[in-house]
Amino acid sequence: MSNAPRYVSLLAITLLASFTSPLGAVVGDPTLRTDHPHYPGEGAFQTADDCVRFATEGHKSEQEKALALYNWILTHQWHLMSPQEPSALPIAPDTAKTNEDLIVYDASRARFSYGYGLCGTVHAWNEPYWKSLGFNVRRRAFPGHTNSEIEYGGAWHTFDTDMAGLLFRKDGVVAGYEDIIADRSIIKNSKPPVPCYPFAWPGDYQAMVAGWEQVAQGGNWFKMYNSGYEAHPGIISLRRGETFTRYYNRDHFGGLTKRRFWHHQAGGPARNWTFANNGTPEHTGEKHNARSSVTYCNGLFEYTPDLSTAAHLEGVIAKSTNLIAQQQSPLLTSKEGAASIEFKHFSPYVICGDPVDDANPMTGKATDGLVIEGQAVGKVTLAVSTDEGQTWSQDQRVVAGAFREDFTDIVKGHYGWRVRCTWQAASGLDQLKFTTTTQVCEAIYPRLKPSGSEVLYRVASRGVTPVLPNWSLSEAELTKSVEVHELRSSNVKYAPRSLENRMMYQTTNNKPGQVVFRVQGDGNLLTEIRAAARYKIRSPAPEVTDFHLDYSVDEGKTWTKFGEAITPTDNEFSSGWVYGKADLAQHPIREALVRVHFYQGGYPTGLFDVQMYGVHQTPSPPATNIVYAWREAGEVKTYTKSLAKGTFQQRFTVPTGPTITDEFVRLEVP
């Protein structure tokens, strides 16, 4: 059974009204890109397409680009138990156990929060990268292992980024399974300095050679398509009164016993067999640069809204109509009767915590993932939601006077929260501060280069509204919140996800099915939508299948396709992901519809999950400070760049010395 917190339905909440944030001052989608040769940060790696452009710049042929991307992946991913996150199922995430339904397959979440996973997981993450190069891609079974295969030049080629191994045909082209079955001498044909199974040399190499010997004998080595996807936007938004600090050193909070992470492993996720942090991968016999160390970083969001002015509304998603912000105590109060206000947080970084036992923040107790502090006048009740207000935790706390409440065990493993504050007339708040700690993939940190480092700061003025349905809800609750029930096809039935019912939508006959959802932008104009859906498919696949995504900007009158999963008939994986994104900048709308279409050639099918995001406009950015800190000659040095309001792009140089270690980078919005 899960130890997850219990929740109450949103249908019992009638006090709050939906709210459109007034035009204020928000730093929407700030990114940093340094001139570090390997780890320039999210400004270079915000999407899979960005990563591929960075990795393959200057390379011409298909194989040159594939090898360049292979090397990039080796320095940005590493082998460890695959990350897991909460779902509607009553199972607590625990990376010490196998929970297939909880494993993360979104390459964007992997890139921003993790970077580590087992072979099958990382090769699923790699699919959006290979597809960005224009290649067909699939996973392929291997003895005790899983590979990636990509198609170029009219043939399939095996790229193993987990064990870091490539084999080559005699003509110098990367080999695939069929090549090795036809010519087993390829098994020992590497091409130094291209890595060929260097870890734990020579043990791993010998084990992989033995595996290829089995493959060379023929047999059915399963082919698996559409295993991974990219959907979660790599976008943050900062309000006035908010800072975002990324600490490169995981011991920033006070050493081993104070580390904050989201993984079941003593001291947090780490490994010392990797190409990360060690330059361009190289391997020649027993000589290689794969004996490096890698771990995680932390991201700290600290938000102190100014309750005495309208500035606090930049962080509000809903409020009652009787709220008053004033210059006297209580600064935030109400005219009469009960009052309520909801604050929000969402980012591409997973919320983590300090495990009480220093090893297991997942099924064990953890602290300091979400801490709410403040000064209450009278009694104020705090409640937390992790599903955009669809449900609220039953762990609601009444505070008075100075308070500090830790809600980590409710929000850990999620990417956002809503906090609702309620009180009766004459009560209210004088002060409020939200501190959210996240886990950050070490490879996404925008690192400084020695002897002076140039930094490019950009603001795209975008925010994100997640639409992540809670599949444990009843049909009535779900259709009231996110689904457009009248546009669901009549042959599709809904039942909440459970251990006995993994698919929430299923077709009742052999006809195509469809479901439709609303995607909004918190009252702002939408600029883009992103979505992904996981579907069931027979193995082998039927001759005709149709899994795709459409969007509508006119309430369903017309539809435009924006994502499709092409499934060859040799597919032998029983589920898949269809995903896509659509630019809506030419449509001045605040709400769009997303339709999921699923059909598998005359057989019933269904859906395991649907994830959607609305990317929307944000106001012009206010004044912002960027603070870089690094260690040099035993001392921590800092450099601050102050930017005037309305600054959308700025280049500057951080005066680093010849030998440095990154400490932190901070974005401050006064």
From TrEMBL:
Keywords: Signal. The keyword Signal applies. Residues 1-25 form the signal peptide. This is Sialidase domain-containing protein. It comes from Pirellula staleyi (strain ATCC 27377 / DSM 6068 / ICPB 4128).
